[in-house]
Write a structure and sequence with these properties.
It contains 15 helices and eleven strands. By secondary structure, the chain is α+β, with helices and mostly antiparallel strands. Strand 9 and strand 10 form a beta hairpin. Helix 1 runs antiparallel to helix 6, helix 1 packs parallel to helix 13 and helix 5 runs parallel beside helix 13.
Length: 509
């Protein structure tokens, strides 16, 4: 009778569980820095604080299944070593270019595949959701911030105007008769959305059996907090407006937001509970899924897992050791004909943290003014890298500069054409407004791109080929009144000279 209730009492489980724990411990040993970095994000960010309870919940969900698992015979699935090699490679790519989301996702996926490889498909099918739920521990979602902030601003302004309140909007900032408001990261609703999806997915699993009901509730847990956040932002502005900006403008702003979110989510769960389904009994035939002989010993599978999982960190250590180079020194930019150095015409500077070298200069050609900004990166790591969500044209709480709009432009750099990112910036000082147009693209070891993903991939492949990670962001900016002509003319004549400057810098490593 005890075998039906305790997997550890079954001979096959007594052999497999120690191997499973050893394999998990081995993976965590090699990827300890990635694991601790993930926990550090949980600790410092309220957005991902929920991740602390994700592993305990997954363990609890598996523990609930112990009666179903006990009669099953764990059988290793060696073909899963192929996807394990893929996740190890993805971790290596992410580590080479310091992408937290990729390395941490690869770590969690490696742990999941390790468990499934050792226990086998038949056993793992019973605990598929608890294993997949571990993915909610990966702190990813910040990439949605700009779009969510834009949507929140759009809805709030639209709702205010529909209410009859006049609004003047500039990017994510807007003015109503009672005061000034701005949409910042805390207004994006990302915390509500991630928390709602995590809890909503768990609720759907525990309360529904049919797949379509689960999917409908998960979809609702995504849409409801988005719409609720829009309403929250609008109501906060209205409360501030009618209270003379005495309410909902300080700490109570956040308190009100969480109270409102809590009420909405509780209502969503209360409604969802009306359609709860009773769990289906497990058929007797399903308990004999693993009564097949093993084609390969569990010990051999664990040894192969150990070798594959260690290959990523060992490979990174070898590449990183061979990749080190001295700090770069950017020289002077050779000027195109008709352009001369000039005093700065604006105090704007993009927020790019800790470049290895930086150049920012202003030029003029008659009545045309233009600026060049280059941030050069070498020996990149998690605190010092080119492409990251914190490297921006202007931070959201900048008291002077704000991004009004973003777009794309096709420019000519000498004989080559490139689709680059463009943005309109507004600078507001006392009694003075400045409008700038910025063109931006990346240079990665001689390759040009405006895609952040492509820039990361090019840098990773460059490091794997032993060419280093030398990368730079190039920005041209000019006053909006003359930007169209001056930016195009300067880019065409100076593009090859900028490339030559960066190439010379690369060759001195």
């Amino acid at each position: 009778m005890t075998e039906a209730y305790s997997p550890s009492s079954h001979p096959a489980w007594r052999r497999t569980l120690p191997l499973l724990l050893a394999a998990i411990g081995w993976v965590l040993f090699w990827y300890w820095d990635t694991a601790t970095a993930m926990v550090a994000i949980w600790a410092r960010s309220d957005t991902y604080a929920h991740a602390f309870i994700v592993p305990p919940i997954s363990f609890w969900l598996i523990w609930r299944k112990r009666h179903e698992l006990a009669p099953l015979k764990p059988t290793p699935t060696p073909w899963l070593l192929l996807p394990l090699a893929v996740t190890t490679f993805f971790w290596l790519l992410g580590e080479l270019v310091a992408v937290n989301a990729l390395t941490q996702f690869a770590l969690v996926a490696t742990l999941i595949i390790t468990i499934v490889s050792i226990l086998g498909i038949g056993v793992s099918r019973r605990i598929a959701f608890p294993l997949a739920f571990l993915l909610f521990a990966v702190p990813v979602g910040d990439f949605m911030l700009p779009q969510l902030m834009e949507w929140t601003a759009n809805f709030t302004v639209l709702a205010l105007r529909a209410t009859g309140i006049p609004v003047y909007r500039e990017g994510l900032q807007f003015v109503i008769p009672s005061g000034n408001w701005s949409v910042v990261e805390a207004c994006s609703g990302i915390r509500y959305i991630i928390a709602s999806v995590t809890v909503g997915t768990l609720f759907a699993y525990l309360n529904y059996v049919s797949l379509h009901r689960r999917l409908i509730f998960v979809a609702a847990s995504i849409l409801v907090p988005v719409i609720a956040n829009w309403l929250r932002a609008y109501m906060i502005v209205m409360i501030g407006h009618f209270s003379g900006n005495k309410l909902a403008v300080g700490v109570d702003h956040l308190i009100y937001g969480w109270v409102f979110f809590g009420v909405v989510i509780l209502a969503m769960f209360a409604i969802g509970a009306r359609w709860s389904e009773a769990p289906r009994p497990v058929s007797a035939g399903a308990t004999s899924l693993q009564n097949v002989s093993r084609a390969i010993p569990s010990t051999l599978v664990v040894v192969l897992i150990a070798a594959l999982s260690a290959a990523g960190p060992l490979g990174f250590a070898a590449i990183n050791q061979a990749d080190k180079a001295s700090p770069p020194q950017l020289g002077r930019l050779t000027l195109p004909a008709d352009w001369t150095e000039a005093p700065p015409f604006t105090d704007w500077k993009p927020f790019y943290a800790s470049p290895s070298a930086m150049l920012q200069e202003s030029f003029s050609n008659g009545d045309q003014q233009l600026g060049v900004y280059i941030a050069y990166y070498r020996n990149q790591d998690y605190e010092h890298k080119l492409v990251t969500s914190t490297n921006v044209l202007a931070v959201s709480n900048d008291p002077v500069w704000a991004v009004l709009s973003r777009g794309r432009s096709t420019i000519h750099l000498g004989d080559a054409s490139l689709d680059v990112r463009s943005a309109n910036l507004l600078g507001k000082k006392v009694g003075l407004e400045t409008n700038l147009v910025v063109w931006q693209w990346y240079w990665v070891n001689g390759r040009l791109t405006s895609s952040e993903i492509e820039a990361k991939l090019l840098a990773a492949l460059s490091r794997m080929r032993g060419m280093g990670d030398d990368s730079a962001v190039i920005m041209l900016y000019a006053p909006a009144e003359t930007a169209q002509a001056s930016l195009a003319a300067f880019a065409k004549s100076a593009g090859p000279k900028i490339d030559a400057l960066l190439t010379r810098t690369r060759e001195t490593r």
